[in-house]
């Protein structure tokens, strides 16, 4: 039997003291223990990007990251992208452009796009495609997603 461990996580600007099992992934802690269900559980193999969160500003697959490894880092989920309870202009661009079909992959795309625009406010199409290469959508065909990110960049969006 594995002994549980105490960790402290900074998620969306709030600190959580948690007792976890050493093998628990960040994905399961976010969803199951913190109730942040915007981060999606899908392949759990790091292939689809639905579980993407930001760790110290960089996109990571939370399904592959042990929660204990996130201690000392700033974690931002899709819930943390909102500003004062309102959608960001990036999120509004996704809605406006119809870049959301079933919506399952959308949180991962938004988080990855926010990281891109934070690091590179004027990305080329090649930059956008590269930044989203870890995310899979089975509904939209990516055209509307790319258009929404281009539009958000043109508006000078700070995610």
Textual characterization of the structure:
This protein has five helices and five strands. With 159 residues, it is α+β, with helices and mostly antiparallel strands. It folds into two domains: 5-77, Beta-grasp domain (Ubiquitin-like (UB roll), Roll); 89-154, Orthogonal Bundle (DNA polymerase, domain 1). Strands 2-1-5-3-4 form a five-stranded mixed β-sheet, sandwiched between helices. A hairpin with a 2-residue loop joins strand 1 (5-11) and strand 2. The longest helix is centred in the last third of the chain and has 14 residues, at 106-119. The model has no long low-confidence stretch (mean pLDDT 94).
Offer a concise description of the structure:
This protein has 159 residues and is an alpha+beta fold. The chain has helices at 26-33, 89-96, 106-119, 125-131, 143-154, and strands at residues 5-11, 14-20, 52-55, 58-61, 74-76.
Record keyword descriptors for this entry:
159 residues; alpha+beta; Ubiquitin-like (UB roll); DNA polymerase, domain 1; 5-stranded mixed β-sheet; 31% helix; 16% strand
Q: Secondary-structure blueprint of this entry?
A:
Elements: E1 5-11, E2 14-20, H1 26-33, E3 52-55, E4 58-61, E5 74-76, H2 89-96, H3 106-119, H4 125-131, H5 143-154
End-to-end separation in angstroms reads 43 Å
Query: Could you tell me the mean pLDDT?
Result: 94
User: Based on the structure given, which CATH architecture of the largest domain is correct?
Assistant: Roll
Number of helices: 5
Q: Which spans of ≥5 residues are poorly predicted at pLDDT below 50?
A: none
State the CATH topology of the largest domain: Ubiquitin-like (UB roll)
Helix content: 25-40%
Number of strands: 5
Strands ordered across the widest β-sheet? 2-1-5-3-4
The CATH class of the largest domain, by name, is: Alpha Beta
Q: Roughly how many Å is the radius of gyration? A: 16 Å
Largest sheet, in brief, is:
5 strands, mixed
Question: How much strand?
Answer: 15-25%
Inertia-based shape: globular
Structural class: alpha+beta
SSE sequence, one letter per element: EEHEEEHHHH
Number of domains: 2
Q: CATH superfamily membership of the largest domain, which one? A: Beta-grasp domain
């Amino acid at each position: 039997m594995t002994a549980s461990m105490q960790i402290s996580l900074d998620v969306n600007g709030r600190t959580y003291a948690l007792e976890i099992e050493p093998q628990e992934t960040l994905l399961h802690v976010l969803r199951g223990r913190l109730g942040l269900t915007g981060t999606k559980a899908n392949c759990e193999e790091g292939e689809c990007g639905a579980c993407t969160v930001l760790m110290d500003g960089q996109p990571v697959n939370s399904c592959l990251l042990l929660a204990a490894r996130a201690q000392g880092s700033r974690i931002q989920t899709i819930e943390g992208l909102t500003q004062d309870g309102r959608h960001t202009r990036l999120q509004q661009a996704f809605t406006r452009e119809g870049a959301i079909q079933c919506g399952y992959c959308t949180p991962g795309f938004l988080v990855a796009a926010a990281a891109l625009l934070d690091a590179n406010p004027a990305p080329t199409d090649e930059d956008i495609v590269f930044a989203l290469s870890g995310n899979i959508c089975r509904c939209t065909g990516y055209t509307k997603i790319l258009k929404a990110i281009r539009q958000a960049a043109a508006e000078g969006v700070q995610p």
